[in-house]
Amino acid sequence: MTQIQRGDLVLDIKNLVANVAGRNILKGLDLTVRAGEVHAIMGPNGAGKSTLAQILAGRPDYEIKSGTVTYLDEDLLALAPEERARRGVFLGFQYPVEIPGVNNVYLLKAALNARRRQAGLQEVDAFEFMAIIREKMKLMKMDESFLKRGVNEGFSGGEKKRNEILQMTVLEPTLAILDETDSGLDIDALKVVSTGVNSLRQDDRAIILVTHYQRLLDYIVPDYVHVLAGGRIVRSGDRTLALELEERGYDWLVEGSSAA
Amino acid sequence: MSTPTAPDLEQLVAQKYRHGFVTDIESDTLPPGLNEDVIRVISRKKAEPQFLLDWRLKAFRLWQTLTEPTWAHVAHHPIDYQSISYFSAPKSKTDGPKSLADVDPKLLATYDKLGVPLHERARLAGVAVDAVFDSVSVATTFKDRLHAAGVIFCPFSDAVRDHPALIEQYLGSVVPQGDNFYAALNSAVFTDGSFVYIPKGVRCPMELSTYFRINAANTGQFERTLIIADEGSHVSYLEGCTAPMRDENQLHAAVVELVALESANIKYSTVQNWYPGDENGIGGIYNFVTKRGECRGRNSRISWTQVETGSAITWKYPSCVLIGEGSVGEFYSVAVANHLQQADTGTKMIHIGANTTSTIVSKGISAGRAQNTYRGLVKVLPSASGARNYTQCDSLLMGPDCGAHTFPYVEVKNPSAVVEHEATTSRIGEDQLFYLLQRGLSQEDAVNMIVNGFCKSVFNELPMEFAVEAQNLLALSLEGSVG
Ligand SMILES: Nc1ncnc2c1ncn2[C@@H]1O[C@H](COP(=O)(O)OP(=O)(O)OP(=O)(O)O)[C@@H](O)[C@H]1O
Ligand SMILES: [Mg+2]
Question: Within an 8 Å CB–CB cutoff, is residue A64 touching chain B?
Fold first, then answer.
């Protein structure tokens, strides 16, 4: 595998049209993300932000009607969800599920090794893995007792989000899509989560943040801000766009898009 | 265009039976049919004492007065008991092997295919294996070490020959001949099984294990197991069961009796993987088993742990009769039903003594078009002051066409008793599955992880070396050709 350089194309979405349960949600969406960049996607409730994130991760039940998605020179839509994950696509879920009885560490070690196998690297053993996870848990200010618990089992809303970012820092994805990771976090947790995300801000990776709050963008300063409304990107700009949205809301953009 | 490779639960649960092979060994088999003469032949072939023949004949006469139970949530074609052969022994074995070296290599190869490498397992895991091939025990390991501890662990027929007094005292004392239709049939025609006696104060130095396998076509298997734990003794016993693939159904009607005297502790673990039939419900074992333990002494404990993945139909209720004051009964169960399998299983906890406690944890997994029923009875008699029971029943459904049913019966005749019951039913979540796929796990690994997580509290009860085996078995039963 060749090394990814800053500026290389990581994700290229062209004219994506997709349905959910027979309803058209994405209506010709374009988005280009390059290595080293952080993109924030904002937009009204129900606009299709999570739909986009889920489609990129390969969730079944979404019907792709037309368009293409290229990820590092590959047709992303032709890959199974687990193949995408192993190639470095990570989705931080808006609502992480609980999986009772499945140990956190056990899952994370299996996930890391699946990714390493794909990259032609040797699997880590339990000993090496514990060293990695201890370091990341320190970064995420998580108590070691989380390791013994089931995946998200009985976690508070904020703890679940923190756990998503912990997983992300361990898996070191090439493309991280974080769906409202900031929702439900207290101020301290927001800072910790931001530290985790910023630690992955590197030349050979890209991050897409879905958020409703400009506040997150004070901690993770994006290179681009997009507004997703009515199933497509209706406006793109730099981080000042987020500040403008906070002032003016979405109406002025949404009306523009429905007229188009 | 649509998103590729939607995790297809139908496919995931469509798995093939791995233990489907037939060993080509000449058998000494009686023609099909059942009458008093057949019973006399069985008894004579086994050179049994008169009391046992009389006992069998009494059972046979009782059986003739009984009818098959119909209350279970299962359905099957009527069984023609006259078309079954009631005795089948590998021919070269009529003299019985003296050691592993005398055992037919083909048999040993069979056990290897089953994943029971006698030598390895015996030596490495410190497990003494009494392997039952059809009806006659063919190999018993570690006899010497057990002998030194005073433990008796041998094929049932050896016990009849060498310890007739113990047999006469305890046989049928927990499950009487007329207990139910299948138990009566077993009492009349049982051919072999295992016998265990742990003397006073002895902690059995190793796990005891028996592997059963039904090989010959059209033979029923009726083994009989009797375990007696004398005062203050401890024993952990595991049975594993597998049978080859055949188109016709085979009957397996076993009886297991456990007796725990004062402060004795019996842990009985089962990993059952009888052939379940194919995706269309052709073939498979009818597993109609009576298992019961009596905690006779004060502070005694009997614990049943079972992982049931096989059989076309399972009808099985390992039970505890808690007589001794302060005695404890436990039941931990994972029952998997896939394709057209039907499982009706559960337990009975009968509280007779004061301050007796029981715990029931049942995990039912249904996939394909299978029906999985939990049936449990907690009965507290007037004498059982301070009795306590805790029951937890969880069902996991995989796919839209399967069913889970829970029938908890509670009869409390003592007002000081405390009986708690919790039940949940959940569907294996597409959300959970997708979450794990998104982390890079294969579909099979993802399903296994979710199912194992669901069963964790039961697997934790299995002896260490068998917990892994149980997990593998579960994986085998539920995974499929993911393409
Ligand atoms: N499985 C589904 N069945 C039916 N409708 C769905 C399904 N999933 C999403 N939708 C609909 O698609 C639309 C887009 O939903 P999506 O979750 O992508 O919005 P969002 O932009 O993430 O909103 P929010 O900001 O509230 O998280 C909504 O109207 C939603 O109700
Ligand atoms: Mg959303």
Answer: yes
- Cβ separation B429–A81 shorter than 8 A: no
Which parts of chain A register pLDDT below 50?
1, 256-260
* CATH value of A9-259 in 3.40.50.300, 3.40.1160.10, 1.10.287.3610, 1.20.1250.20: 3.40.50.300
- pLDDT at residue number B121: 42
3-state secondary structure of B195: strand
DSSP letter (8 states) at residue B327: -
pLDDT digit string (tens) for A58-90? 998 899 999 999 999 999 999 999 999 999 999
A22 touches chain B (CB under 8 A): no
Closest CA to A101 of B196, B90, B363: B363
Q: Is A121 on the interface with B (CB under 8 A)?
A: no
Strands B136-140 and B128-133: antiparallel
DSSP letter at A3 equals P
Of A58, A93, A114, the CB nearest to B441: A114
Question: Is the alpha carbon torsion for A194, A197, A203, A209 positive or negative?
Answer: negative
Q: How far is CA A29 from the centre of its chain?
A: 17
Question: In Å, how far are B333, B361, B470 from B303, measured between CA atoms?
Answer: 11, 11, 17
Burial class (CB in 10 A: 0-12, 13-18, 19+), B253: buried
Q: What is the predicted ipTM?
A: 0.95
Q: What is the pLDDT of residues A173-196, one digit of tens each?
A: 999 999 999 888 999 999 999 999
Residues B381 and B395: their CA atoms lie apart, in Å, by: 29
* B219 vs B212: CA distance, rounded Å: 14
- Three-state DSSP state, B319: strand
Of residues B341, B417, B343, the one with CA closest to residue B373: B343
CB contact under 8 A, A99 and B436: yes
Residue A55 C-alpha to ligand 1 middle, in angstroms?
12
Is A252 part of the contact surface with chain B (CB cutoff 8 Å)?
no
3-state secondary structure of B219: strand
| Alpha-carbon distance B156 to nearest alpha carbon in chain A (angstroms) | 40
The residue nearest atom 18 of ligand 1, judged by CA position, is: A48
Closest approach of B3 to chain A, Cα-based (Å): 6
CA–CA distance, A71 with B122 (Å, rounded to integer): 53
Q: Please give the pLDDT value at position A254.
A: 75
- Which residue is closest in CA terms to ligand 1's atom 24? A45
Beta-carbon pairs below 8 A across chains A and B: 107
**Closest-CA residue in chain B for A101?**
B453
A86: nearest CA partner in chain B? B440
